[in-house]
Amino acid sequence: MDYLKGLAAAALISITFSVIPASGNIALPETVAARGHVNGGTAGEAGGGTRAVRPEGFGEGYTAGSESSKKLIDDVNVFVGTDGFGNVYPGPQLPYGGIQISPDCDDKDYDCAAGYKYSKPFVQGFSLTHLSGTGIPDLGDFLFLPGIGQEIKPSKLDHSKESAHPGYYGITLDGGVKAEMTAALHSGLFKFTYPEKNGAYVMIDLDHTLKWDCEWSDVRLLDEYTVIGSKVVAGWNPGRYVYFAARFSEPIKDFTILQDGKPVIYNTKRFRSSMEAWGKKLQVIVRFDGDSSPFIIRKELAEHGTDGHALVGSKKDGQFQLEIKVAVSGVGTDGALLNLKELDGKDFDKVLAEAEATWEEALGAYSLNSEDKTLRETFYTSVYRTMLHPFVFQDTDGRFREHDGTIGKAEGFTNVTTFSFWDTFRAFEPLMNLVNRPLQADIANSMLAHFDKSAERMLPYWSFYGGETWCMIGYHSCSVLADMILKNVPGFDYERAFQAMKTTATNPHYDCIPEYTTLGYVPFDLEKESVSKTLEYAYDDWCIAQVAKKLGHEEDYEFFLSRSMNYKNLVDPETGYMRGKDSKGAWRDPFAPIAYQGPGSVNGWGDITEGFTMQYTWSVFHDFDGYVQIAGRQRLKKYLDELFTIELPEDIPGAHDIWGRIGGYWHGNEPCHHVAYLYDYFGEPWNCQKWVRYVAKNYYGNEPGSLSGNDDCGQMSAWYLFNCMGFYPFCPGANWYYIGSPCVPGMSVTLSNGKKIEVTTKGWSEDAVYIKAAYLDGKKIGSPIIRYDQIKDGAKLHFEMSRKPVKGAFKK
Amino acid sequence: MDYLKGLAAAALISITFSVIPASGNIALPETVAARGHVNGGTAGEAGGGTRAVRPEGFGEGYTAGSESSKKLIDDVNVFVGTDGFGNVYPGPQLPYGGIQISPDCDDKDYDCAAGYKYSKPFVQGFSLTHLSGTGIPDLGDFLFLPGIGQEIKPSKLDHSKESAHPGYYGITLDGGVKAEMTAALHSGLFKFTYPEKNGAYVMIDLDHTLKWDCEWSDVRLLDEYTVIGSKVVAGWNPGRYVYFAARFSEPIKDFTILQDGKPVIYNTKRFRSSMEAWGKKLQVIVRFDGDSSPFIIRKELAEHGTDGHALVGSKKDGQFQLEIKVAVSGVGTDGALLNLKELDGKDFDKVLAEAEATWEEALGAYSLNSEDKTLRETFYTSVYRTMLHPFVFQDTDGRFREHDGTIGKAEGFTNVTTFSFWDTFRAFEPLMNLVNRPLQADIANSMLAHFDKSAERMLPYWSFYGGETWCMIGYHSCSVLADMILKNVPGFDYERAFQAMKTTATNPHYDCIPEYTTLGYVPFDLEKESVSKTLEYAYDDWCIAQVAKKLGHEEDYEFFLSRSMNYKNLVDPETGYMRGKDSKGAWRDPFAPIAYQGPGSVNGWGDITEGFTMQYTWSVFHDFDGYVQIAGRQRLKKYLDELFTIELPEDIPGAHDIWGRIGGYWHGNEPCHHVAYLYDYFGEPWNCQKWVRYVAKNYYGNEPGSLSGNDDCGQMSAWYLFNCMGFYPFCPGANWYYIGSPCVPGMSVTLSNGKKIEVTTKGWSEDAVYIKAAYLDGKKIGSPIIRYDQIKDGAKLHFEMSRKPVKGAFKK
C-alpha cells in the first residue's frame, strides 16, 4: 500500500483515542473481525467458488481439471484480492512475464488500480499491461474489446460466465462473444469466438490508460493481418512510452480509425491515409466480413504480411473464431513485432498449454501438506502472487528502454521492472533470496542499469517501465541489495552495487539527506513524514554499513553505521515514542502517538508515513535493542500491547484502503508487517504466535475480498508464505529470522540451490496456534530465532503445536 | 509554394477577368513591376546592404573579408528571401547539413514559416532546426535565448547589430549580449558573450515550435555541463519526435525548470528531482554565477560529465563568454550526444572556420564572370539556397528515425530528409542530376527507405523528419527517380526504384488513382483539384513508362505510357483548355479559365491546384505536342500570350504569398515555372528570352524581399541557376532542355564528373536579353533545344546577344 486518496493535505486532524489496557492474552472483541476486510469483506456476497465450476467451453486447451491427478494451478484462485483493495488482476501472465493481459472494469476509479474489480458491473475490454497490487493505478495499455454489430460499449461483467486460472482468463460478453486470453513471456494471445462473422469486430483503444492520460499515440495497419501502435503516458511514471503489435488470424477487411469517438474523416482536404493516424483519443475498429480489403489491389503486401503466420482462424458450428497474437514493448513497434515471433507456429491452445505447464512447474517449488480447500487456495494463490512482479521488461533481443529514455541492451542479465521497494524489501525480497536467487540477480542488475541512467544517480525507489515515481520514502534499494549481498546471491557486481548504494544514500537533493546527515535526523519543519524518513534512512544505513564491512570499506562502514544510529535522536525522552524534531532541535509540540501531526505530508499523516507514531515507532529493524535501552523495556512493551488493543474508529481519513486491523495493528499496510514479532523480542513469543495466526486466518483467504490491503507486488503474499514456514525476516540484511507460528500443517519449498525447507507439525489445527516446541533438523530450538545459515542449504523444521500458550516452548 | 492561408474552402468565388489582346512583343505596363514583390518589395525600405558592413566584433573567426582575395561566401547574402514570402532563414548550416540554427521572430505567424522574417520587430531566440522556403511552417525546435538578469523576453531585432554569412549568424541583443552561432554537419555551436557573468542566463524553450504544438517533452540536466531533452510535435509532419543535447563550456550553477512560465515546484508532495521534468510548455533557465552547483556534493558526477570536453569559457575585458555545443537527433538523446562528438576538440572559431571553408569550396563549383555586386549576390545566394535542402537526417553512426517511427541504420548511403517534390522535380532535381549526383543517390536511397516503411507503400510526397505530410498533388517522386535513372545517376538500385514507383502509382487509396485508371481522368465530383491531378499523374506516368522501357518492363511501359495520355481526356473540345469532368463524363459547367471552380479544394481553387485553368493547362510536360494536336496550335498560342498579358486584380484570395506576377504568369509559385519556354515550342524563342530575363531581373535579387514567393527548398533558386546557364529542363525525365536567355554575362559550373559547363556571351547586357546566335562547343545551335548528352560531359555554351528580338537566331 503506498498511497492514499481523497485526503486533502491541508485537512489535518488531530485525533485522540482511548487505549484499552493491555492484558497478556486478551480476548478479541467481535468487532475487530467485523471491522476489516476479513475473508470476503465487502465482496463476500459476490465471492466464493466462482471458478470451482468451470463454465462449459471455457479454457478448452486446459485439461488439468479433467484429469484424475489434481494440478497445482487448480489451487490458485486468481480472483483472490480482486475485490476490496487487494488491487490485483485475474488475467493471464507467465511467472514474471512481460505481458499481463487482463480485463479492465473502470479506468477512472482510483481504487481499481489493476483495472479489474470483482464487484464492478462492467468489463471495458482487455488491456495488455497491468500492475499487481499497487495502491496507485497505471498501465492498462492497449484495450481490446470484441463485439458484434455497430454499437461499441462495455459488456456486463457476469461472473457466471467467467473463468480464470494461471495463464488463462475467459468470459462471455454481451452479444455472446466469448473472449479468452493467455500469455507467453513477451507476448500473448486472444481467442475471440463470435456467434457469427457478420458484424464481428475488435475495438483497440489506444487512449485507455488506468487513471492517467495518454498524451500522444499512433496506430497503423501494417499489413492485412497486423496492427501496430504506440502511446505516451503522463502517468505515475511521469513520461512513459509503450508500443504494441497485434497479428490477426483472419485478414482485416475494414480498418476504421476513430478519434474522440468519431470516425476520422479522410480526404476532406489533402489526402490522409486511412491506414495510420496520430494524436489523442485514438481507437480503431477492425472488421472481418465483406469482400474488400484495405489491401485489395496490393497483393504483394498481403504476402509480405503473412510472414511468420501460423494462425488460421476456423469456423465451428457456424461460429467465427478469431485469434490475435499480441505483444508489447518499451522499445518500439519493431520490438513488439519481434516479440510476436516467440509465438511463431503456435496457436491459442498450444500457448495456453505451455502457460499452464510453466505455472504448474513454478508452483511446484512449493508443496502444501493439506487437502483443505481454503488453505490450499490461500497458499497457492499467495505463491502465485509472488511470481508476477517484477516482470520482464525487455524485448526478446534484450533491448529495453533505459531510465533516461534511450534504448539499451541487457547483456548477461534479463532486465526486469516494477520495483515497489518500500513494500517488498520486507518479505518479498528476503523470500526470493531463498527461493529464486536468479531472479534476484536480474533485479540487482536491472537496478544498477537504472542507477547508471539516473539523473540523480540514485538506485530505483518505486520504478516501472523505465520511469521513477519517487513513491514512498527511504532508500530501500539499499536494503534489497544488502540482503542479496549478505546472503551471497551470485550474478552481479557487489562493488558496483555498493558504490551505487553509497551514492544513493548521500544524494544531496533527496528528502533532507544533508540535514539528516548533519543534524542527525530529518527535521519536520523542512520535510514531511520526517520521523518515518529518519527511521527508515537509519535502517537503510545499517544495511549499507553491513555491505561496506563485508567488502572491506572500513571508513564507509563507520560512516553508515554511525548514521544508522540517527534513530536515537528522535526518541522522545518524555514518552519514549519516536517524535518529530525541527531543525532548531525543538520537539514536535503538541505531540500524541495517535495524531495527524504537522502539515503537508503526502497523505496528510504529518510526521509519519501512512500511519501514526504508535505504529511507526517500531521501525527500528536493525537495533531495536538500542531503542529499548533508551526508551525503556517496560514502556515499549506496554505500547506494543496497546497497539493491538486500542479501539480506533473505523473511518480514519487516509486509511480507506488499509484494513486487516487489530486495534492499531493494520495488516493492510506494510509498516506493521514485522511488528507482531516484537513479542519474540519481549519474551512473549506466544503473543507473536497468536497474532500472526490470527492475521493469516482472517486477513488472507480464497475469496475475491480476502486481501486486507494492496498486495503490493507480492509483499502481502510473501508475508503469508514466510508465516506458513513459521518464521519471518524481521530485519532484512540481517542473518536471522524470528519464529512465528506455522499457518499450515505442513509444507516444503525448494530453494534456488535445489535444497528444501520442510516444515512439519504435530497437533496443528486452526485453533492450535501456539508452539509447544520447535525443532530444526531434529534439534530443539532454544530461542524464537533461526539463522540464515541454518536453513540456506535446506532444513527440516518441526513444530509441536498447542491450543494454549506455552511459555517455556523455547527453553532448551 | 505549397499552401495558402486564410481562404476558407467554402468561400468559392467565380471571377471573370478581361483579357488584353496579345501582341508579339508587348510593352510591359509599369503596373506589372509595381504589383509584385520586385526587388525589395514590402521590405525594400528595410533591406539593402545590411551585411555590406560587418559590425565590429562580429564573426571574429571569420577572416575572409579582411583578405585581399575576395571570397565567394562574401557574395552570398543570406538575408535574401527573408522578407516577403521567400520563407528562408539566415542562420548557419553546412551544405545539406543536419542542423539549421537560426533566429526565430514569431512562432505564431503562418507567414514566418522559417522562423525569421526581416521586417519583424523581435527575436525570440535561436532554434536548432528550420525548413528552407516552405509555404507551411514547422520545425523551430529547442529555442536558445541568452540574456542578463531576471526578465526573460524576446529582444528587439536591430539589423544594425546583426551580421550573417554562410556558416555564421550573429546579433547583439537587448542587454548587450552578443549571440553568435555556427554549424557543423550534425551539430553546431553558440557563442554568447555577456557584459558580465552575474545574472547571465541561457533559456532553453522545449515548447517553442513554429506554428504547431509540442504535445510532450522532457528535459534533463545530465551532468554539470550537459542538458538533454526531447519533444513530440503534432505538426505538419503529423507525429514528429526530435531530441537535443547541449554542452556548456562553463559549469552550470543553477538549473531551473519552468512549466507554463512558472517555476516547477518541487517537493510539495513526494520528492521530485529538480534535474529533470516531463510534460508540456517546458523551459529551463541555466545560470553560471553563484558558488553552488546542482552537483556540488557529487564530484564524481562532475568528473563523469567532463568526458570529451574541449571547450573552456574565457573572460575577456570583464566579459563572460560562453560556448554551447548543440546537436539534434531524430533517434534519441543518445544520438544527439553522439553527434556532439564531432565537435570534440573544437571551439567556436575552429568550427566557424571549417564551416566557411566548406561553403567556400561548395560555392566554388560555380564561377560567375561578373563583378556586378547585385548579380554576384543574386547568383551566389541562389547557389547557396540549392545547398540547404534536403539535409542529413541521421546520426553520425548512421542511425535514423524511419518513416514508421522505428530506428533504422543507413547502410551504404546517407539518409537525407525534406522532400518537396511537387516543387523540386521541376528544376532542383534536374540541376542536381548535373552538379551533385552523389546527393541524388542519397535522395534516392532515402526515398526507398521511406517507401519500405510506408503504411501505404508509397514513395515520399512532401516528407520531412521521417514523416509524410501528403502535401501537394501528383506522385512526383516518380519524376525525380526517373530523371535520375534516365540520366544514369549511380548509387542506387534502379529495379527496386522502379517497383516502388509502380506500387506508388497504383495505390488504390490515393486521390482517385483507381478512377483515374479506369475512367481516364480524376473526376471532379469525387476529388478536389481534379484537373491538376489528372495532368500531373499523366506526366508522372510518362516518367514511369520511360524507366519501364529502360529496364525492359514492356508490359509496364505500355500500361504507364497509355495512362500518361489520360490528360487528353480533359481537353475541352469547346475551349481547348483543360476542363474538369465528373464521374458520369459531364464537363464542369459553368466553366471559365479563370475561376474558382468546384467546392472543397484545399485552397479553395477548385479543380486547379493553387491557380486557375489558364495557368495549369500548360502542365503537359511530356506530350505538349499531343495537346496541341487536339486543342489547336493557334488557340493555345493565343492563350499563352494572354497568360502574360491579362490584367488580374492584385488581391486574389488564395494567392497572398504568390508574387512575381506578369499577368497570369506567377513566378512566385511553381506551376508557371516552365511556361515561358513554351514560346520556344511555338517558334517564338524571343518571347521566352524576354520573359525569363524579365523574371530573373525583377523577381530575383540581393535584398531581403527579392524573392517573389517561397523558395521551396531551393526550387526557385534552381530555376534561376538554370537560367543563368541559358537553358531549362522543361520536362524532367526527358533528355533535353529548352534554351532561354542567359541571365548573367558568363559563368561556369563543375559537374559531378569534374567536367565543366562554361557559358560565355557576347554583347550581354541587362537590356540585351535576346539571342542572336547560340553555339555549343563552337557549333551553332539550330533549334532552341539542347540535349542532355551534349552537356553531361561538359560543354562550352556561347551566346551572342541582342537588344532586339532576333527571329532567325536558331536557323543553322
Written account of the structure:
The structure is a homodimer of 812-residue chains. The model of chain A is unreliable at 1-55, 59-68 and 296-315 (pLDDT under 50). By secondary structure, chain A is an alpha+beta fold. In chain A, 24% of the residues lie in helices and 21% in strands. The first copy, chain A, contains 20 helices and 37 strands. In chain A, the strands form ten sheets. In chain A, strands 6, 7, 8, 9, 11, 12, 13, 16, 18 and 19 form a ten-stranded antiparallel sheet that branches. A six-stranded mixed sheet of chain A has the order 20-32-33-37-34-35, covered by helices on one side. Chain A starts with 29 loop residues before the first helix and ends in a 10-residue tail after the last strand. In chain A, helix 9 packs antiparallel against helix 10 and helix 9 runs parallel beside helix 12. Chain A is globular, with a radius of gyration of 27 Å. At the A-B interface, strand 11, strand 12 and strand 16 of A face strand 11, strand 12 and strand 16 of B.
